[in-house]
Amino acid sequence: MAVDLAFSGGGASSTDPDGPDGVRMTWNSWPRSKVEASKCVVPVAASVTPIRASPSLVVLPYAPLRCKPPCAAVLNPFARVDFTAKIWICPLCFSRNHFPPHYAGISETNVPGELYPECTTVEYAPPPLDAAAPPPLPVFLFVLDTCLIEEELGYVQSAMRRAIDLLPDHALVGFITFGTQVHLHELGFADMSKIYVFRGTKEISRDQILEQLGLSLAGVRHGAVAGAPGYLKGPQGNGLHPSTSVNRFLLPASDCEYTLNSLLDELQRNQWPVEPGNRDLRCTGVALSVAAGLLGACTGGTGARIIALVGGPCTVGPGLIVSNDQSEPVRSHKDLDKDAAPYFHKAVKFYDNLAKQLVSQGHVLDLFASALDQVGVAEMKIAVERTGGLVVLAESFGHPVFKDSFKRIFEDGEQSLGLSFNGTLEINCSKDIKIQGIIGPCTSMEKKGALCADTIVGQGNTTSWKMCGLDRSTCLTVFFDISPSERSSQPGIPNPQLYIQFLTNYQNPEGQMRLRVTTITRAWVDGSNAEELVGGFDQETTAVVLARYISLKMEMEEAFDASQWLDRSLIRLCAQFGNYRKDDPASFTLHPNFSILPQFMFNLRRSQFVQVSNNSPDETAYFRMLLNRESITNSVVMIQPSLLSYSFNSPPAPALLDVTSISADRILLLDAYFSVVIFHGMTIAQWRNMGYHNQPEHQAFAQLLQAPHDDAQLIITDRFPVPRLVICDQHGSQARFLLAKLNPSATYNSASHEVVPGSDVILTDDVSLQVFCEHLQRLAVQS
Fold first, then answer.
1. How many CB atoms lie within 10 A of CB 267?
2. Could you give the CA distance from residue 313 to residue 324 in angstroms, rounded to a whole number?
3. Using N-to-C axis directions, what is the helix angle for 769-780 and 597-606, rounded to 10°?
4. 10 Å Cβ neighbour count for 698?
5. pLDDT, tens digit, for every residue of 357-367?
């Protein structure tokens, strides 16, 4: 039973803020009562990365040992074990459980892997019930927009060819093209090109789609679609595919590579005539319905992804976001605020129903949107996010943001995203804790129980969530409610620790079912002990949790004022935990654990998550989806970008995110997550334009120019979606990408002696960080 722990990474490195468990909390010491929790201002929440890659992860080749129902928690290092009586006590519900006979050999010197103190996160890989059955095959169903100009169509064809080369040979592939009509290609019919055509103007149900394809559920029930999940009943003895099987449309990549490449060679743009002044008639909604309907014929447990490549707005049929008359613009934030977007709510309802269908089937929708205009990401957000799909927004199918991101999802080895399928997350916790809900790429499974809180945040009213698609970096935010029962306030010694267990069942990229179990403990703190509360505060996690929370509120509540809500919360927090004399702003100080939070809030108020009017609804939806699914470290960069400075006088060093960091003889590298900006000071740009870096005596200058490019490449290689690289010069038009993110400590209103020579001013009426903090101090100390 004992497991040999051969750690290759020696546990999490000290630089890894997520630790071996991949869990970060706003408060690492929890207040005991509801009243004390409300005084803390910041919600008690945890950011969880369910299947994060960890070099120290222990994999156990047997099934987990569970506590008796209704608890059903898994045995973990925090359980109290009586080795002589062979009993373990669950730390969550205090039930006594007997070890089964195959644990008879355990003793204090021979413990199973799940009881090792360092194994708070373990993964179970039990042998499959049917060892002879092959693992389910992953399905990739490509849905391709053909209402594109010839140049864009060429880019899509080359991206698709690259993807087909990278696909695993055993993966099943399907192909749908759409314009004014939907064309489903029967890849299994090798003699000639055979296509099923669906009209793009009306909504069709899953049953109608299956019936038209000869895959009706009646046929499925009669055993026409049996066999391994994903690959449903092999070819007949004569080499022809049975006409009632879905594998006419979904073939192994190795079998249909030639057919797919031939189809791509013959691919033409949508042939439907378009009158001058009109948009293409594009039926995105019907195309996705047909894709979901086709996958509905797969057996349960098949991991499948619909990969939609969309190059413009849906203008016909269900999911319509704008009419085909070009004089009518696509809806803006202002239209949505005034309820002047006639198609929006109907389209959202359509994609909500599509999301429910995909979740019930366990399939994922990935969206690659590449167009200068909006394509409807705001409407499709619900289907992508509920199924745990990936989303990439670019200007063109030829842009590196699309090309490199699209390639990444098929790569394996170190570059692999670790795309997994059919995940479910269950949360179990100590009895005084209830779960309000989750913000992130998942869907509530409506499994109500005693642990559900009355207040719902995001996907709530459940202790179990479905994640049709998840990967190594997928991150969820869980909101908790502290509600002690009468029993817990009885006299006696209260338990000083609380426990939470996260159980993630998922199908890994190789098709094997795994169970990842993470059990964490934190300390309860009495309200009078503010020092311990402050000591356990995580300001980075708090900034991200608040950003996710207000993004949700802005979507759900029409009149919600995010800036005002953030200001009030920050003032209350500083008044509660700051050190000061009443009515004396000069005496105000903050504990180091809170010191950067005002700066985070200042940048969050100015970010694209709060100031949405500068972006289209599609861009806002895209930014929010990534904010909700990325790790805390990445999300912090979205809120408050990092800035590096390169100069002759010193090695590369972090610089203040301030306009004063701009200097004529410096290069700045800004990482704003969605874009990476290399900004050359005026003098550096002039020297480069004169070609000094090409002269042998100026090797140092050539190295200085190259250094930020090398560092930018490291950032880009490591990130999905691939960020946009912007290379610009001081006073150039693209310098706006940097200036928009900097603290405006020098504006057009500043006196000339306040502006550093060679630096810059920002043309804005926004207040600077210094003025913001002065106002905060004044309001926090008011009696």
1. 16
2. 9
3. 120
4. 15
5. 999 999 999 99
Q: Identify the pLDDT of residue 192.
A: 79
- pLDDT: is 237 or 434 the higher one? 434
Record the tokens describing residue 711, joined without a space.
């560092």
Distances (CA, A) of 429 to 336, 522, 739: 40, 11, 46
Angle (nearest 5°) at CA 426 between 52 and 435 = 105
Out of 2-11, 166-175, 486-495, which region has the weakest mean confidence (pLDDT)? Answer: 2-11
SS3 call for 428: strand
Q: How many CB atoms neighbour CB 146 within 10 A?
A: 21
**Tokens encoding 235:** 């070819």
The pLDDT confidence band at residue 15, using thresholds 50, 70 and 90, is: low
State how far the alpha carbon of 721 is from the alpha carbons of 391, 626, 632, 741, in Å. Answer: 8, 9, 16, 20
Model pLDDT, residue 355: 97
| Residue 595 to residue 578: CA distance in whole angstroms | 10
- Residues 6 or more apart whose CB falls under 8 angstroms from that of 359 comprise 386, 387, 443, 466, 468
What is the biggest distance separating any 2 CA atoms in the chain, rounded to whole angstroms?
Answer: 90
Question: For residue 486, what pLDDT is reported?
Answer: 56
The pLDDT of residue 227 is 37
CA atoms within 13 A on the CB side of 151: 5
Which residues is 306 bridged to in the sheet? 141, 365
Q: What digits encode the pLDDT tens for the residues 148-193? A: 999 999 999 999 999 999 998 889 999 999 999 999 999 988 777 8
- Helices 377-386 and 344-361 pack at an angle, to 10 degrees, of 20
- The three-class DSSP label of residue 722 is coil
Who wins on pLDDT, 755 or 155? 155
436 three-class SS: strand
* pLDDT tens digits, 200-221: 999 999 999 999 998 875 444 3
In the chain, the amino acid numbered 729 is: D
Tell me how crowded residue 591 is: count the other CB atoms within 10 A of its CB.
Answer: 15
Q: Cα–Cα distance between 521 and 117 in angstroms, integer?
A: 12
Q: Which of 349, 376, 381 is nearest to 365 (CA)?
A: 381
8 A C-beta contact, residue 501 and residue 427: yes
Work out the percent of the chain whose per-residue pLDDT is above 70: 92
CB 173 within 8 A of CB 250: yes
Tell me the C-alpha to C-alpha distance, in Å, between residue 419 and each of 20, 175, 201, 358, 390. Answer: 20, 20, 34, 17, 10
What is the residue type of 734? Q
Chain segment 533-561, per-residue pLDDT in tens: 999 999 999 999 999 999 999 999 988 99
DSSP-based three-state secondary structure for 324: coil
Cα dist from 561 to 336, 529, 567, whole Å: 15, 33, 10
Place of tokens 């594109």: 148
Is residue 240 over pLDDT 70? no
Phi/psi of residue 603, nearest 5 degrees: -75, -30
For 759, the token pair is 């630096």
Structure tokens at 355: 């999301």
Left (φ > 0), alpha (ψ -120 to 50) or beta: where does 717 sit?
A: alpha
